[in-house]
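Workshop exercise sheet. Pairs work together: one partner reads the sequence aloud, the other fills in the structure field after running the prediction. Swap roles for the next sheet.
Pair: D.N. / O.F.
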Amino acid sequence: MRVYQTIHKYRPHIPLFEARHGITDDSQLSFAELQALIIQDGYAAAYILEPALHGKTDEVFYTIWDYERLQFLWAKENGLNTTDLNLIKKAQIDWFKPDVFYNMSAFRDDQFIQRFPLPKNILKVSWFGVVQAWPEMQEDYDIRLTLHKPYLEIWKQKKLTSYEMQPSFCEYWDSLRKPEPQIDFMAYGQCVSGFFSHRNAIFEEMLKHHDEYDMQFYLQYKEEFAPLINVKFLRRITRRRVFPTPNIEKYARAPLYGSTLYEKVANSKYTVNAYGNFNTHFKSNMRLFEAIGCGSILLSENGLYPDGFVEGENYIGYDTVDQLIKRLPELQANYPQWRIEMEPHMDRVRKQYSKHNQWLRFCEVVHKQLI
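Structure field:
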């Protein structure tokens, strides 16, 4: 089975990735070299299918479809005289001749398969992991995959084929784990008010205790403003800043991605996990896998989790930020004991959601449709 897997770029990530590896307009890299480098660097590793991680590009061709430097290299090497990213993506599909088109960007690729219809023999699979009040239907796809279990019932009601598929643990994270991590409490991720005001409030309260611990929060946000006078022409000149809040502004560090992030997680005793505004009925995100995979004990909100994640075994739960803050002294003092007690349970869930098992799960749901 041949799979064409694609995802979109995350804008803050690409400049940091290129700076870390010294990639410039003068770099003499081939498409294959840059493709391998961005896979090895680890961004979105929990979602990349196993053959692509192992360099088996004849089985899974993985690309970031709107990363211009990467895609323009492919176009140049294949004699394609265009800078239209959609045309390059379509040309790659025609060249690779996949059995499966696995699109992790269906919600933001300007309706690619509607504008560039694929051959009927190609199975179209979409991924939708944005947790909001209602999922996108993506009706032109044969299969929908998600980590957010409540979406499955909604799609079922619409008679749309869908399956749960969680992120996975990457084997190379094992080598990053440290017997004596140095950072007490770490957190990372987006802080955008519309989707993450709940998470932002938790981080703001936590950071009030920044000076009591080695507390390192790597947060990605932008300044947000609200008008003092809500009258046309006066809104802009009378506006006030409403985000970031004081402690996030004072203590948050620049965001990290890929291998640099994983190294920092592996050097953290605890990783604080907080969810978006719409994760009230189900709890899953990449931090579950990245933290536990890198050996950091996860502090995560109580709720319904994917099968195998058990509070008190492979993560420590909390109901409110006040409850969590009260536990910080005990967690810091008793870290060695927590690590000893939880490690077997963390290892169990790592095996359950291994990269190989993720690939087997993908093959399972795809073969149901290919038969």
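Discussion prompt: Residues 335-352 form the longest helix (18 residues). What would you look at next?
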